[in-house]
Write a structure and sequence with these properties.
Strand order of the largest sheet: 3-2-1-4-8-6-9
Distance between the termini: 26 Å
Oligomer: single chain
CATH topology of the largest domain: Spore Coat Polysaccharide Biosynthesis Protein SpsA, Chain A
Largest sheet: 7 strands, mixed
Number of strands: 10
Number of helices: 12
Order of helices and strands: EHEHEHEEHEEHEHHEEHHHHH
CATH class of the largest domain: Alpha Beta
Shape: globular
């Protein structure tokens, strides 16, 4: 399996494979908000998909971007690309706009901050090995990890990441998943919000239909690009924890109180220096050659060990304060959109 992100290619090379009539129609759906920096590499990878162009449609949903997203999409030479526009903010809302237009028997999802492998669709499609599989979750790898925030999110938190074992039922992330179109016909689309909508969809599929998720252990490869932005990272941790309250309430699960996260932050504080030393000792080979960098990485790791549970605690407490009255079910809307589109 190729685990190296593809090189940029100036020309689309979408396959016109033989026996294309035997291939099912696939719709690829990507939400994007202010993606001018991220889109070029994503579009390059989509142009290289090894799947017949006449059996493929790529639906990119511009979620009311204010940068050059619209111009970049308009200039794309990908023949199977259709650009949609959704004014209501939210990744779930944007994905639903794509679902409404999709003609495929299978719907594949990824995000603007991702890069897909040329065999992505073929690998996911091969994962539907029997009629009980409603979704196939592909492999996610980091595109590049150059900053401690990126490494922490990817390697320590495994985010974004599928969860074959979860608090209730398995769930797949929309950075890399393919569903049968029949799933949406049976259980409806994503919640009109950003945060928890993919988990909610996966749980509805598994409780309302015989379908289950097949988690690939290789293949269906997508590389995720992280942002070395501490403020954005903390904001995301806070927001995900806040929306967790609504998800748990909707599914009658135990509501988090935040005490566990607060305890983790309190424990991490006195372990700050030991964490720095532990990291330095684990990097003995580099310690003599680049001591400052190794020390800098250790300080970042110790800092994030405190910040992550603290921001999650803050998010949970905000969610509890905003919690709707018992029995009332509504969707939360995102306080802001993320430029990654996911």
């Amino acid at each position: 399996m190729n685990t190296t992100p593809p090189e940029a290619s100036p020309q689309p090379v979408q396959s016109q494979m033989e026996d294309s009539t035997q291939k099912p129609m696939i719709s690829v759906i990507v939400p994007v908000y202010n993606g001018e920096v991220l889109l070029p590499l994503l579009l390059q990878s989509l142009s290289r998909l090894n799947y017949p162009a006449d059996r493929l449609e790529i639906l990119i949903v511009n979620n009311n971007s204010s940068d050059r997203t619209a111009e970049i999409l308009a200039e794309s030479p990908i023949p199977s690309l259709t650009v949609l526009f959704e004014t209501t903010p939210g990744a779930g809302t944007a994905r639903n706009a794509g679902i409404r237009q999709a003609k495929g028997a299978f719907l594949a999802f990824t995000d603007a901050d991702c890069v897909v492998d040329a065999n992505w669709l073929n690998d996911l499609l091969a994962g539907f090995t029997d009629a009980t599989i409603g979704a196939v979750a592909g492999t996610l790898e980091p595109h590049a990890l150059t900053h401690p925030v990126e490494r922490y999110e990817a390697l320590r938190l495994n985010c974004p990441g599928h969860r074959a074992t979860h608090v209730f039922l398995p769930t797949a992330v929309t950075a890399n998943v393919m569903y049968r179109a029949d799933v949406f016909a049976q259980v409806g689309s994503f919640l009109e919000c950003t945060g928890g909508e993919e988990t909610d969809l996966n749980w509805r599929m598994q409780t309302q239909t015989p379908y289950r998720i097949n988690f690939l252990t290789g293949g269906g490869l997508v590389w995720h690009r992280y942002r070395a932005d501490l403020r954005a990272f903390c904001r995301t941790q806070r927001y995900k924890s806040r929306t967790l309250i609504d998800l748990h309430r909707r599914w009658n699960l135990r509501i988090p109180t935040g005490r566990k996260e607060l305890f983790k932050a309190a424990i991490a504080l006195p372990h700050f220096i030991p964490t720095v030393l532990k990291h330095s000792l684990s990097q003995r080979d580099r310690l003599l050659q680049e001591p400052n960098r190794v020390l800098w990485e250790g300080i970042w790791e110790a800092r994030l060990d405190v910040l992550v549970p603290w921001e999650r605690y803050r998010g949970i407490r905000e969610g509890l304060r905003l919690q709707a009255p018992s029995g009332e079910v509504n969707s939360q809307t995102s306080p802001m959109q993320q430029p990654s589109g996911g």
